[in-house]
Amino acid sequence: MLAGKRILLIIGGGIAAFKSLDLIRRLRERGATVVPVLTKAGQEFVTPLSASALAAEKVYTDLFNLTDEAEMGHIELSRDADLVVVAPATADLMAKMAGGHANDLASTILMATDKRVLIAPAMNVRMWDHAATQRNATTLQQDGVIIVGPNEGDMACGEYGPGRMAEPLEIVAAIEAALNDGPLKDKRIVVTSGPTHEPIDPVRYIANRSSGAQGSAIARALSALGAEVVFVTGPAEARPPDGVSVVPVQTAQEMHDAVHKNLPADAAVFAAAVADWRVENSAEQKIKKGPDGTPSLKFTENPDILASVAGLEVGRPRLVVGFAAETTNVTEHATAKRLRKGCDWIVANDVSPGTGIMGGSENAVTMITDQGADAWPRMTKDEVARKLAHQIAEALNDA
Ligand code: CTP
Asked: N or C: fewer beta carbons within 10 Å in the chain?
């Protein structure tokens, strides 16, 4: 529920703007107050009158409107909300946000706000796929902006692909997650997930079979308890959950840098299957077959991200949780690993062949803490994630 929450809804100029009128209704049904801001282009698609009638609030459109400035300045407007939502977020609005422009009311609010920002992009497929938009999306995620969608489907312009704005109820779910008052409210948690790709040359890489399913489930479960989640993910099959800040990376080194850049945090959970080695002599150009015979790859060790965070003297998260994939003597190996890496907990998996855990939907976990080992019954990865999230909430709220 969103009772008592105040949402500043910036409606950009796109055909999806009509769905934002429905979004206003859905948010109000759940008890939220919605204050609409229409960009100039947004007003070409929906009128201030319809937005204000549905919101039962004044609609803001101009940066230089003296009456508004006397009533409520744009700075105040940007701070007076619990969350700033941009729907639809056009390619142009995203570019302005990523570039830090402030030349109209919407962009000025987005620069001045001290609240979290959630955007629902909507644009033509090619505009979404364009390198500039993808670059801007990555920058915005790194700035902590939550991105919901876009979805794939038929578009108003007659093309098919990603670019449709997320449906109003999907946006509502992401808003509820972002404003959640659960036991992890006000807690920031970094989660790593997925495999890493270590390049051999520009077209080849070394990877592993991690699907990212367990990491995604953990990020979703933490977010559902109200945490602000920074999800640092390698190229995984599993879709990142809505409502978290996604930081996509390729290599272990990039994952290391992204994790440290996103500290401080209250907790960090290392569910990624990080490649232990990278190719030291990776080639700038594609390696060709030729008279020189088969290439030799020389490996060098990657930084241990978990150990580097667990060992921080300044700014160490209060709770550092690692994973261990073991095939024999699970408890013994994982207990040694906890001490070696300096983390607080190790979630140990038995991944021996025959368990069906690697790539499957279930997990058998032994939790290793300074209190010893606790073997959890076999359960789904979602259940493991929820149990872990609750234990993290208890630990962070203790003391
Ligand atoms: N990890 C990491 N950075 C690395 C390697 C591992 O952050 N370069 C983290 C993983 O995300 C996981 C834990 O460390 O939380 C696993 O440690 P690792 O030593 O890789 O253990 P295993 O994968 O279980 O492998 P091994 O038994 O070979 O040590």
From this structure: C
Tell me the best of 214, 304, 329 to mutate to test the pocket of ligand 1, counting ligand atoms within 8 Å of each CB and taking the most: 304
The answer for residues whose C-beta is within 8 angstroms of residue 31's C-beta and 6 or more apart is: 1, 2, 3, 4, 5
pLDDT of residue 86: 98
Ligand 1, closest atom to CA 333? 27
The pLDDT of residue 194 is above 90: yes
> Domain 188-398 belongs to what architecture?
3-Layer(aba) Sandwich (3.40)
d(CA 334, CA 323): 8
Whole-model pTM: value is 0.72
- Tokens representing 356? 């069906």
Segment 74-85 shows an average pLDDT of: 88
Residue spans of the domains in the chain: they are: 6-178, 188-398
Within a 13 Å sphere around the CA of 397, how many CA atoms are in the beta-carbon half? Answer: 14
Asked if the domains 6-178 and 188-398 are classified in one and the same CATH topology, the answer is: yes
What is the CATH architecture of 6-178? 3-Layer(aba) Sandwich (3.40)
How many whole angstroms from 273 Cα to the centroid of ligand 1? Answer: 7
Q: Which two tokens stand for residue 228?
A: 């602000």
pLDDT tens-digit series, residues 313-342 = 999 999 999 999 988 899 999 999 999 999
